[in-house]
Write the structure tokens for this entry.
Amino acid sequence: IYVFWAAHSAALRRLSGRDVEVPWLGSLNMCWLLVIAFLPFPTAVVGRQLTTTSAPLYIGSMFLLSALTSAIVTVVGRVIGPSPRGRWAWLTTAVFGFWAVVSMANADVGMLGLLLLVVLRFLEIRILHRKRVPVGG
């Protein structure tokens, strides 16, 4: 959840001190906050029993949160200028989507597949560091 909060915060920080109108940002932000508030429920469900129903609920919720985060990064980028993290955000969303589908057939594999996100984040940091781009923004 920290990574989502950090990405959300970085996207909104890019707007700091600018008097700009960002279409859809209010609606996206409200949906994002609703999913954040909902997230403890699927987390508790999957923590109680990992099944081909609970895993897709959990990973699907994370997929939705990731898609909303990516959309926020994108709409801010359209007004301020694209963020180097934009493509990485959508790649993360795709990983969540893929493993959500896999978890419908095999909950264990779906949950283990989420470890790919650690590798993805490591690659993102390494590549952006080489380009001398701030990782948070």
